[in-house]
Amino acid sequence: MLQQEKIAxxxxxxxxxxxxxxxxxxxxxxxxxxxxxxxxxxFNNVVLTQDWHPEHHISFAxxxxxxxxxxxxxxxxxxxxLWTSHCVQGTKDADFHPDLDVSQAQLIIRKxxxxxxxxxxxxxxxxxxxxxxxxxxxxxxQIDTVYVVGVATDFCVAWTAIDAVNLGFKTYVxxxxxxxxxLNGSLVQKWQEMQALKIGRIQTQDVLKLL
Length: 211
Ligand SMILES: [Zn+2]
What we know:
Layout: E1 7-12, H1 33-40, E2 46-51, E3 72-75, E4 78-81, E5 107-111, H2 134-140, E6 145-151, H3 153-166, E7 170-179, H4 186-196, E8 200-202, H5 204-208
Parallel strand pairs: 1-2, 1-6, 2-5, 6-7, 7-8
Antiparallel strand pairs: 3-4
Helix pairs in contact: 3-4
This protein binds zinc ion.
Zinc ion binds at residues 51, 53, 59, 86-87, 112.
């Protein structure tokens, strides 16, 4: 059995904006809700992340001239994919999906609220230096293992898991509680990257058996 006080579930961006009919819809993302809800009820430590952008955010294609969603641009911190405007602070698009049972969550990390920096990871923003404080929170509570679920597998979930393992946490991604975007093969590429870092690729039932 797993020691509840040592483990945390990180639920990444289960928000209207990434669900079917959202501003940056991820195909079938709502199908993960039953697994995510079930997992949340079996963890004592649950952290939610919430993409939370100002209207003028640098990652929105409509804030750049002659750019389309999914174009790449160069920023001081490196390459950035441009997205449709999504998860703007205080809008319905930024709300958690109404069927997500948020009652078990102890902490909500809001990310992407600096206008000039995107943030896929729940730990470190895309400039790779601005920290969210999540590592400190987990360390202070002696949590050494994290399980990551949510959307999108190949962006915010993968970046969160990769940062977690690099920060010294034992890290798992629960595949059937995630949904991917798959931009030019990014889904396969991110799974390869995660597996090379020894991030566990597991399924909801495998985790529930241990809790
Ligand atoms: Zn975003």
